[in-house]
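ENTRY TYPE: protein
WANTED: fold as tokens:
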Amino acid sequence: MELGLTETQLMLKESLAKLLAANVGHDRLRQLQSAGVADDLLWSRLADGGWLALPVPESRGGGDATLMDIAVAVEEIARSAAVVPVAETYACAAAVGRYGTEEAQAAIGAGLANGSMSLTAAVLRGDGNDADGGGCVTHGRLTGRKRFVDYGQTCTHHLVTASGDGRQGVYLVRVAPGEVESEALANIGQTPQANVRYERAAAVHAGGPECAAELVRLSTLLCSVQLLAYADFALNLTVGYVSNRFQFGRPLGAFQAVQHHCADMATAVEQARFLIYEALWKLQHGTAQPDDIALAKAVASRTGVFVTMQAHQLHGGMGVTDEYPLHFYSRRAKERSVAWGSEHESLAVLAESVDAAVEWI
């Protein structure tokens, strides 16, 4: 297993970084957050560059990317703090691409290739129970409620877990007035999120239970990638700050206590990176177990919050200033740390198999 970036992935990362640097600014981010909307301009730029179709097979006009390629793109976009549903769209497209129906694959491939589609997963039921319910399909029409849908009020399509018409799994729903109603939610990450009600919304069967399970697995790991990006950005921002901020005639970074904190932050980031990308590699090759994904998310949740909060402390008064960009990352890290399984929820999954026999090779 090789977890280092390939030459192609490095080129992908550099190219995407240039596009984001030219189109994402902190002032614009504040405007988007205040309005509670996604960055449609950046979305169109990503579409023009073919970035949205990255998970789509080459035969359908996409980039035929691996899960590792997708993670590299998600990490770079998260580092910019862009307000776009890229991780959500990629998770939906990849899940359907791996286990979905031909009809859904064709629709998603076409929509992402021309930039007319944005996707999000709707799996948490209106009564608070997890996926595999919360929606009923009758004669191709979906009725039900879903909670905490990321970008639920801005995406053009939802991939909804539901049952009915003799089938269970996921259904592709196009957002239409009168059929899909969203109630915007406020969250600490200040990104679009909504509770959604479906009233006999037109629904196309997109995949069975395995597709629904893959959607949750991918959403969890790409959420972990976002947490990794937030922590990595905060680490680099902090190292730069303590290297140039002088106190008592010396850079803050020259003090041993500050160095110890930075070392702890760097260690946490690297261990999270390894576990997250290892889990993605296993998922790509069909060997991922629930424990692999739960461990990656538990460590990502812990690391995202720990590193960004430590960054605030090392910045001192500057870190408290709302105008400073660190707030974008610490807020989102806190919000993403509880999405798709908090640290404690993920550790509970691991605890279920703690006494299982291990085959040592």
Q: What stands out?
A: The radius of gyration is 20 Å. Residues 201 and 235 are 45 Å apart (CA to CA).
